Structures are given as C-alpha cells and as structure tokens.
Amino acid sequence: MPEILTLLTCLTFELNNTSLKHLGCIIQAMLAMSGRVTMLGISRWGGKGGSYRTIQRFFYSPKNWPTLMWIFFRTHCFCPQEKYAIAGDEVVTTKSGHKTYGVDWFFSSLAQRPVKGLAFFALSLVGLEQRQSYPLRIEQVIRPVSEAKAAPPPSSSGTIEFDFRDAKQFWGLEDFMNISQTAVTNAVNLAFFMVNLSRRLLRDFRREQHPQFSILDLKACYRAFKYVDKVIKLLPQKPEPILISRILNQVANLGAIHSVPVTGISPE
Description:
268 residues, alpha+beta, four-stranded antiparallel β-sheet, 9 helices, globular
C-alpha cells in the first residue's frame, strides 16, 4: 500500500516542507475519520502534528490548487495509452447563514429548485476508455444579485457527476464550515484533491486484491490502522509484526464491504 507522504513528494516544488507535512497529516485523518469532515473533525483524527491550530493555519493559507492537482494527476494518475477529454459541470452545496463567502441562491438539480448555498464549476479530464474522471480545476461561482434565482445552468452530466458524489459523500464538500474566501477555496479544492488521491489508492487495491474495492473499504483500512496504532502504543511491549498484521485484518474488515487482506499498511 503506497505511503501518503511518498505520494505527495511530487508537490515539493509547490509546497514548502511545513505545508507538505500538514497536508499529509490532514489526508491521513480524512482517510481514517468518520463523521463530518470539518476542521474540528480533522483535528480530532489528526494525531501528532494535527492540532486544530495547525489545521486552521493550513486552511487559511492560500494554495495554488490547479497546479497541485495537475502535478498529482500527471505523476500518479495519467496513463499515456489513454485518451482524455475535458468535461465541465457545476455543483451546488447547500449552506445556511449569511457569512460564508459567495453564499447565495443557486439552482440545484437534485432538489429541482433554487437552494441557498455555494456553487462551484469544475473542469475534469475524463479517460475515454476507462471512463474515469479526474478534477483538475475548481472555481467558485459568484452570481450577481440580478441572477441569484436564475434558471439552471447547462449540465454535462455523466462521469464527472461521480466526482461530485465522492467529494460530497466522503471528502467534506457538503460538510465544511469555513466562511472566508481562502478557507472556502481550500476546503473545496481539498475535497476534489482527495477524489484524485483516493482513486490512485483504490487502483492498487483493485489490481492486487479486489476489483470492487470501494472508498468505504479504503477508509475502513486506514481507520483500522489508526485504532490499532493507538492501542499498540498503550501496551508495555510492542507485539510481533505478524500479530499486528492479524489484528489489522480483523479490525479493517469490521467496517469494510469487501474483505481483503491488509498487508504492509503504513499511512505514516
């Protein structure tokens, strides 16, 4: 199983060492955590180096997300034999209150009516053979007051809709509680970055273990490592590696849909 920090080394020219370590800590927490993906929730699962203040500093510091996403895609997801097409679509997330940057009324295709929230336009590269999409650029839609309750925008529904589904269901696109422009931008782009990273991780599991291995299975594995790691640190003597592997397998399969052997798991 690839280590998270190893996958992120391709970003060293865009992020300093501190930001890279913070991103790695946040990703490990998001892969393992249950519940809502907020800054507070991430800090509770972040472990050493993942305090709330650390998470807050990361979200409130500007990041060049289009470049980060492109570098990660080019390094870990691009297939030279694959042909790609560009697809774009708009996604709406519901938000209450009045302080969140860009909050307004936007047409929701799911609700079939205007809803109060935020809107984002995503550009993705879609593999024409494998039908797998990778979001590369996310921009927030700031609609003038005169267009606040306008008709629904044209949609390119298809493979890219799975990007929105995963970002909302697993990576916090619907959960974040940030209100400033920079923090909102970071939360949304991080959710879509996790879409690409999780697909890179799933590719190894599906090739080596189970072709139907899902994000729920992936999160169960990382959550198992987090639980087992915490328990082992409480023991007076560290168990043998073979015993740790057996424990990991038992714990990981408790929350997994597809049971697979967990070997060499180390998200550190």
